[in-house]
Amino acid sequence: MLRYTLKRLGILVGCLVVVWALVYFGALPRGLGDSNGMWIVLLALVISAPISFVALRKERDRASVQVADRVDRMKANLEANRNQEDGADDAARAQGQTS
């Protein structure tokens, strides 16, 4: 999961550098007024999203398997706790009825 996040961040930073260079040298238009920084960041986000989607497909699949395994483990733990509580309630009721 951390590897996927770092790779995605790396792609974003790479796009940010490329877009900044293109704006600096005039290949892309500057933003209006003081919005140049925001323009560069938004453009880098828009460009990096499809690149990440295609380039990090295997990493994303691995990360999703890890997340799904964690969720399944947590569900199993919750169910085990629920069954344990039900057993304790049943035992307490049985003791209360026989006394």
Features:
single chain, 3 helices, 2 domains
What does this molecule look like?
- The chain has 99 residues and is mostly helical.
- It has two domains: 1-55, no CATH class; 56-99.
- 86% of the residues lie in helices and 0% in strands.
- It has helices at residues 2-24, 36-55, 57-98.
- Helix 1 (2-24) packs across helix 2.
- The radius of gyration is 26 Å and the shape is elongated.
- The N and C termini lie far apart (55 Å).
What is the strand and helix layout of this fold?
Blueprint: H1 2-24, H2 36-55, H3 57-98
Helix pairs in contact: 1-2
Helix content: over 70%
Mean pLDDT: 87
Structural class category: mainly alpha
Main sheet: strands, sense, barrel: none
Number of strands: 0
Listing every helix as H and every strand as E from the N terminus to the C terminus, the arrangement reads HHH
The low-pLDDT segments are: none
DSSP helix count? 3
In short:
With 99 residues, this protein is mostly helical. The chain contains 3 helices and no strands.
